[in-house]
Specification:
With 309 residues, this protein is of the alpha+beta class. It has 2 domains: 80 residues, no CATH class; 159 residues, Nucleotidyltransferase, domain 5 (2-Layer Sandwich), CATH 3.30.420. The chain contains 8 helices and 17 strands. Strands 8, 9, 10, 11, 12, 16 and 17 form a 7-stranded mixed beta sheet that branches. α4 crosses α6. Bound molecules: zinc ion. Zinc ion (ZN) binds next to loops.
Length: 309
């Protein structure tokens, strides 16, 4: 849906007569159930079909379907003699570990917020000023138009809402590009966000609009990072704003609005920057299994990196 709203076509099967080509967005294979779900043209829901695989358990189809080393890719559906044949395409799966640096890979921590939409552990700040400004302008227009209450006022309101959303998406695309650029610049294997569901309860000042912006931003980053072969994972935001990223001391009194001052070691920093370092730090500490699988053990700082002890 996002893709379609950005003016590009959503993924639909393409007719290359007499067969239809499917990609991984228009087709889902459920190998354990031996079924496939296919997008159809028009507004019909997806079609679920059983895969009739050759009987022999040793059949080569199973080797591919049940292997972690292979993932299905572009496939074609043929209609022949009253039956449908699906020619499944496969490609080698990307290795999870990033080659030679299997244990000292680096991640980038990202903190999301209401004033700074995103701050990285490398101290790059992305202001939410423009998003919030557009939002306020829209709110002003809305209350005016709602008072008018006419049909044409309603139409204008819908247009403005569309404009506001388009502009917000444009800003979020720019921010997402900046985050991925930052990860590339610091040679990061992954980008770590806070878990968005958990943010909802942790950030009472983040209204639905901020929640929408966080979700959209994360989607954009995931899409762009995937192209660069960078993984995106999340960690719980618990204590990211109260914990000192330098010494680990955690206390409510450490944070006062935008400033962070550790009551134990005296470390002073922008609160969101401290939080961004904690996002990466806590991911590496808590998510030991997944971070080990990913081969990452340190996070990028503005200069150098840090390995949680
Ligand atoms: Zn401290």
């Amino acid at each position: 849906m996002e893709r379609r709203r950005n003016g590009k076509e959503a993924s639909k099967p393409r007719f290359t007569s007499p067969s239809i080509t499917y990609d991984t967005r228009s087709m889902t294979v459920f190998s354990e159930r031996e079924t496939v779900s296919l997008t159809t043209l028009g507004d019909h829901p997806r079609v679920q079909a059983n895969l009739c695989l050759p009987d022999a358990d040793e059949g080569y189809q199973y080797e591919f379907l049940n292997s972690e080393e292979w993932v299905y890719t572009e496939s074609t559906l043929h209609y022949r003699g009253g039956d449908w044949y699906l020619h499944l395409g496969f490609r080698k799966a990307k290795p999870v570990d990033t080659g030679s640096t299997t244990t000292n890979g680096t991640v980038l921590g990202v903190d999301l917020g209401v004033n700074q939409i995103a701050v990285t552990s490398t101290a790059r700040f992305f202001s939410a000023g423009e998003l919030n400004h557009t939002r306020r302008e829209f709110e002003k227009t809305r209350s005016g138009l709602q008072r008018t209450g006419t049909q044409s006022a309603h139409r204008t309101l819908e247009e403005r809402r569309g404009c506001e959303r388009r502009h917000a998406r444009h800003v979020l695309h720019t921010v997402a590009n900046g985050i991925v650029e930052e990860a590339l610049k610091y040679d990061c294997a992954g980008i770590i966000f806070e878990d968005l569901e958990a943010i909802r309860t942790q950030l009472p000042e983040a209204d639905w609009h901020s929640q929408w912006a966080f979700r959209t931003l994360k989607n954009y980053v995931e899409y762009k990072a995937d192209i660069e072969d960078i993984f995106v994972e999340t960690t719980s935001p618990r204590n990211t704003s109260r914990r000192c990223a330098d010494c680990g001391f955690t206390d409510e009194s450490n944070r006062t609005t935008n400033d962070f001052e550790c009551q134990a070691c005296g470390n002073r920093n922008h609160a969101d920057y401290n939080a961004a370092k904690n996002v990466a730090e806590l991911y590496l500490r808590r998510g030991q299994q997944s971070s080990r699988r990913r081969g990452v053990s340190q996070y990028a700082l503005k200069s150098g990196s840090r390995t949680p002890s």
